[in-house]
Structure formats: structure tokens, C-alpha cells
Amino acid sequence: MTTGVGLVGLGNIGSAMAQRLVGWPGGLTVYDIRPEAMRPLVAAGARAAADLTDLASTATMVSVIVLDDAQVRAVVGELITMMPVGGVIAIHSTIDVDTAPELAAAGASRGVHVLDVPVSGGAVGAAAGRLAAMVGGDRDAYERAKPVFSQWAELIVHLGPAGAGTRAKLARMLLTFVGFAAAGEAQRLAEAAGVDLAKLAAVVRHSDGITGGPSAVMIRGTTAPYPPDDPLRPIFEHSRGLGEKDLSLALALGDTLGVELPFARLGLDRLATALGVPHELSEG
Length: 284
Description:
The chain is of the alpha/beta class and 284 residues long. It is built from twelve helices and nine strands. The longest helix has 29 residues. The protein is elongated, with a radius of gyration of 23 Å. The chain starts with a strand and ends with a helix.
């Protein structure tokens, strides 16, 4: 795709993505309701659109990264009526699971492709061109838009029809924010135990950089238990034993210090199943 591209929504991530598209062979047009958000990009070589109609007049592929579901519906719904046949609209905002399929159907009725392409990696990842992009929608439209996405994404995966990208993003963010909550619990325990939190954080960053953190156990295409003859089963049974021991010790420390640890208790209860090695199968 060497024709013009557009980007709507110049927040922290959108502006960083746009900076990496300045100099695109077909030209970059940007739009934001805040004129001041467009000025740095215009100075770098982008064109500022007066409105969505103006943007759609020069862009055959438009990225949309606005605040919420209502804004996505309003912006994309308007763009669908303006884009040329064969045009592509990519939604990068995190939205409701029904929004992308509905907008894709509306776009298809006018010959416009709507992809849901939520991203992971934040503004830092966007600035470095290292975002992960999770794409749902028409495969041919994905292939056409992929060179644009490659300007700001290091990993781009096509997951299926419209809505598939959003479902993947919600699962990914569940892991992120539950992890944040669990990190807060771990810090409360460490603080009560007199541990230096900055030094603990350094240990966590170091070890997660080696092991991969939670992604280390995300190695299969199913969440079903490991079969008894699976060569990986003994490894995960070993991990289960270590985890249950360590969580039990952490809970005992919490009891001693009077620190409630609900995530640790839930983790102890669910760890075996989460690892694919429930006790009932091991004992059976």
C-alpha cells in the first residue's frame, strides 16, 4: 500500500504511531479535535486534516485510536460513508466485543473494510516501533494494511474475523491488570516484612526477563489438562509443587504479619488447574 494513510486520535500512543508514519510514500494525514496535537506532526511533514471528510479525501487506509467505544462508533461510522471502495479502516482502540463485527458489517455494505487492530506495548512501544498488533478482519485487507502496521509494530498477528483482535486484547489486558493487582499484594507483604521494595522490583524485572514471567506457561493451543503420557507433564507437575509450596509459605508469612493475601489464596487454589496438571488426574 503506497497510497495515502490517515490517523485519527493523537493521544500518547496515536501520536507516537503517527510519528513513525511521517514520510510514508503516499503521505500521512492526521486529525484530532485538538489542533495543538497536530502541530508537531505537521512540523515533521504530515498534513493536518480540517475534519474527517478532509482526511478521507486523501487516505485509503485510516487508523483510528480514540478514547472509547462511543468515539470509535462515531468516527468509524462517519468514515465508512466517506472512504473509497476498497478502503481500510483499522481500529486500534480497545472496544466492546460487538463493536468491530457491527462496524465491519456496516463497512462491507459500502465496500469498505473495517479491521479491529488493538495494540499492546504502550506509547514507549509505539515510539520504538515495537508494538504488538492483534488483527481481526478480512485477510486480504490485513495483508494490504500490514506494511503500514509494520511501521510501528514489531509483532503483527492475524487472529481471524472482525472481533478476534479485540477478544485477544481483552485476554491480554486481563493478565496485565490482574498482574498489577497481584504485584500490589506482593509489595504489601514485602513492605510488612521489612523488604526494600525497590530492590524487590529489581529482582522481579531481572527474573521475569529470564523466565518470561506468566508467558512461560502459555505454550499450548489448549487449556485442557496435560495427558498422562505428555513429556511436558512432569515439568509442570514439578512447577505445581514448587508453586504450592511457595504460596503456602507466603500465606503463612501473611498470617504472621496480619497481611491479607486474597490473590495468593486464589492462586494456591487455582494453580494446579492453571498449569494443566490438576491433582485429581495426578492422583488417578
